[in-house]
Amino acid sequence: MHKQASFNILRVDASARRDRSITRRLGDEVLRRLLTEHPEAVVTVRDLADPVDFIDEQWVSANLTDPAARDAQQRAALAASDRLVQELEAADTIVLTTPVYNFSVPAALKAWIDLVCRARLSFRYTENGPVGLLRDRPVYLVMTSGGVMFGSAADFASGYLRHIFAFIGIQDVRMVPAERTSIDAQASAINALGMLEQWLPAGSVPATA
Ligand SMILES: Cc1cc2nc3c(=O)[nH]c(=O)nc-3n(C[C@H](O)[C@H](O)[C@H](O)COP(=O)(O)O)c2cc1C
Q: Taking the model in full, what pTM does it have?
């Protein structure tokens, strides 16, 4: 009998906080709504509070070597990065939750980005510039800031993340922004849930602000 392929959700969390994290709480709500639509979905969680490695000299050198010419050591240097790209490739939907840290993304998330932006796997350069190699799919981008307005001159995070996703082929970025949480955390969460409502209406699912 023909078995239907599963629906895969990749959740990536970037806050250093596990407790009291606004992004993680909003991410839970996004996931709850996605699972209402796709109860059979397989969820993979990549929690960057358990950090991934930084790229290093071996990694860069292995990455620059033609895949057919890589030796065992070079393949080993790229193994974790290969796995992270595979997680992205396999995902039908991505939920990325991240705070703004020092006007940009947390270093833990930047480390992940450096591992998933892989020439030949997730992008390639052509005469006309870079081309993303991953198929487009929705990314729910849950972001918080303490004081920065998204889209303002001081926001080096949200535009950057959109750019990175587009760079690897993913255009369908759905922002769930909770900005300026230090000014009014509740208003900020309500606003984020209002944005989420456009993408994934709560229906009968209780919302948690
Ligand atoms: C190390 C650190 C740096 C931060 N830098 C900024 C910043 O530059 N701009 C800003 O608006 N908020 C900044 N914040 C506030 C966080 O974005 C905000 O508290 C967010 O809700 C944290 O996410 P979390 O609740 O999921 O942990 C910073 C917070 C921390 C811990």
A: 0.94
Q: How far is the CA of 122 from the centre of ligand 1 (A)?
A: 29
Per-10-residue mean pLDDT of the chain, 209 residues long, equals 79 97 97 96 98 98 97 98 98 98 98 97 94 98 97 98 98 97 94 95 60
Joined together, the tokens standing for residue 176 give: 């769930």
Distances (CA, A) of 112 to 64, 100, 118, 126, 190: 18, 16, 11, 24, 29
Residue in 102, 149, 161, 186 to alter for ligand 1 test, most ligand atoms within 8 A of Cβ:
102
* Degrees to nearest 5, angle at CA 151 with 147 and 157: 75
Instruction: Pick the atom of ligand 1 nearest to 102's CA.
Output: 8
Identify the residue whose C-alpha is closest to ligand 1 atom 24.
21
Q: What are phi and psi of 34, to 5 degrees?
A: -65, -40
Residues 102/177/183/46 CA torsion (nearest 10 deg): -50
Beta bridge partners of 173: 139
Distance 37 CA to ligand 1 centre (A): 31
Residue positions counted in the chain: 209
* 59 phi and psi angles, rounded to 5 deg: -60, -50
